[in-house]
């Protein structure tokens, strides 16, 4: 089982597959209640079958990634771990794919200087209901710590400074009745972005609509390839 050790006593589980030919590497950045297994169930294998690489990994506190009891699982830590993991593994032509909080962490990493060919934000302005989701069976003490520490985030980033191609995906069933589209509003603030809205899909886009997620990601990869021309 491959792990990256960001510091003694701590580890990040990951699964890394290289792309074929001129494919990109989709680097998944989990929701707080997610895991690499969410991507590896359907989405990542389909992307690999199309010739692209993937890098799925778990935050400290998730699944098989380990953390010391005294470690505070802050957003800064998650962003730093993403930066270190990408620097260590060197995925070819990385495209960051962040779900919920993961989108925020991925965007922050890009703003801090992490080089990526593209960025995908999936329900990136949605805040999970911590109390409800923390009560899920099997969450355990580590997940409770992650929810408590990493949810202390500032969602008001300078989105206008993300000067790279961005795909914004939103599940419309998760939008309040009659509310404006967060995906369209976010895309409007980005210099180079387009929005994809999925009817009948809620907050867990890759779990509820894996085929639509795959199609959107493959289309984005094709768009990036056409830009290199």
UniProtKB/TrEMBL annotation:
The keyword DNA-binding does not apply. InterPro entries: AB_hydrolase_1, AB_hydrolase_fold, Carboxylesterase_BioH. The keyword Hydrolase applies. Residues 25-124 form the AB hydrolase-1 domain. One of its GO terms (molecular function) is hydrolase activity. It comes from the Bacteria. Keywords: Hydrolase. This is Lysophospholipase, alpha-beta hydrolase superfamily. It comes from Tistlia consotensis USBA 355. The lineage of its organism: Bacteria, Pseudomonadati, Pseudomonadota, Alphaproteobacteria, Rhodospirillales.
